[in-house]
UniProtKB/TrEMBL annotation:
<feature type="domain" description="RNA helicase aquarius insertion">
    <location>
        <begin position="162"/>
        <end position="223"/>
    </location>
</feature>
<feature type="domain" description="RNA helicase aquarius beta-barrel">
    <location>
        <begin position="2"/>
        <end position="114"/>
    </location>
</feature>
<dbReference type="Pfam" id="PF21143">
    <property type="entry name" value="Aquarius_N_2nd"/>
</dbReference>
<dbReference type="InterPro" id="IPR048966">
    <property type="entry name" value="Aquarius_b-barrel"/>
</dbReference>
<protein>
    <recommendedName>
        <fullName>Intron-binding protein aquarius N-terminal domain-containing protein</fullName>
    </recommendedName>
</protein>
<dbReference type="InterPro" id="IPR048967">
    <property type="entry name" value="Aquarius_insert"/>
</dbReference>
<dbReference type="Pfam" id="PF21144">
    <property type="entry name" value="Aquarius_N_3rd"/>
</dbReference>
<feature type="region of interest" description="Disordered">
    <location>
        <begin position="202"/>
        <end position="232"/>
    </location>
</feature>
């Protein structure tokens, strides 16, 4: 076997799809292909089953894991692969075997592979299936905006009915002065007046936010709003 052909077979990777085929020639000599007749009948193709590569086996019968290390080199032209079968098809075949049919898995004599660039149909179909079966992860309040209609301002946090007003900032702030410096647009008030107790971590309660309640100063800025903090 040529080295190029051997390298192509050894390039089979985990999850690559292959086919196992049972061929029983109808004639002992060469057969000329007739395009007017079915291929299966001319060449005696009895069974075809799909399989998925798990990996190539080493001399100890263990799967060679894929990684940065190069695969070991083997002598000769024989290679052994472990494959996953289609579980649904296997169950059907075994059920027919119980009723007297032959065991098709004892008859396979050809392993068929496709070109790597064309062998992605299973992954593509599985991706399409998973996308179709996945529940919508876009939140309800963003549906109209995502589709390009309705008022874009409806997705602003100030218009949401379930605003989270109380947040635990853990060790975000170094001290109370740092906290006040981070919210210059608010009037920050602590539930305790004792400076010794105004230490992080802080829990902050934000005022209710609505577009109708915002008042403007003469120079166009919002009036400071009260921000209540609590030392944990």
């Amino acid at each position: 076997m040529r080295d190029m052909v051997k390298a192509e077979w050894e390039a089979l990777r985990k999850h690559d799809v292959v086919f196992v085929v049972t061929v029983r020639p109808t004639q002992s000599g060469p057969v000329k292909y007739d395009r007017t007749k079915p291929f299966r009948e001319q060449f005696g193709v009895d069974y075809v089953r799909g399989a998925e590569i798990e990996g190539m086996l080493d001399l100890q019968g263990k799967v060679i894991e894929e990684g940065p290390e190069p695969k070991p080199e083997f002598k000769g032209d024989e290679r052994t692969y472990r494959m996953w079968l289609d579980t649904n098809q296997y169950q059907q075949d075994m059920a027919e075997t119980v009723h007297g049919s032959e065991d098709v898995y004892e008859t396979f004599n050809i392993l068929l592979r496709r070109k790597p660039k064309e062998n992605n149909f299973k992954a593509v179909l599985e991706t399409i299936r998973d996308l179709m079966n996945t529940e919508c992860i876009v939140p309800d309040w963003l549906h109209d905006i995502f589709l390009g209609y309705d008022d874009p301002g409806a997705a602003h946090y100030s218009r949401m009915p379930n605003q989270i007003r109380k947040l635990d900032f853990n060790d975000t702030f170094l001290d109370f002065e740092h906290l006040k410096a981070c919210f210059p647009q608010y009037t920050v008030k602590c539930i305790t007046d004792n400076p010794a107790e105004q230490v992080p971590p802080f829990k902050i309660t934000f005022p209710e936010t609505s577009s109708s309640s915002s008042k403007k100063r003469k120079h166009g800025e919002e009036e400071p709003r009260k921000l209540i903090t609590k030392s944990c």
